Amino acid sequence: MPTSEQKRRRYTAEEKSRFVALSMQPGYSVSLVARQYGIIPSLLFKGKRLMNDGGQSAIAAGDEVISVSKVKALGEKVKQREQILGRKTMEVEILYDALEIAQSKKLISHMCHCCSPDDICSVRVG
Questions:
Q1: Scanning 3, 47, 100, 110, which has the fewest C-beta atoms within 10 Å of its C-beta?
Q2: Is-above-0.70 flag for pTM?
């Protein structure tokens, strides 16, 4: 346990994975790896449990086990695609509005300007 003068050591996901994998190797134990690297054993036990639970649930579901970093990268790609889709949807809406305006102007240009829109006019325009 760190004293007030010692800083708490933070381990990266890769380091934790390496420690857990090492503790699962023949000839190694959680206690041995914990002593060698100055880690509290509960960190390794928790890592082993998480690794086993994740693997077991993936096997039960028939899924492939992938790393968290890959999940995050795929999440970023999804987010980018959603942003692109949002922009494209907006462009389509703007184009539909422009088409509607253009069609209404085309109708106005074919109308007779000497009569009201409700009157039937014999003058042909266009």
A1: 3
A2: no
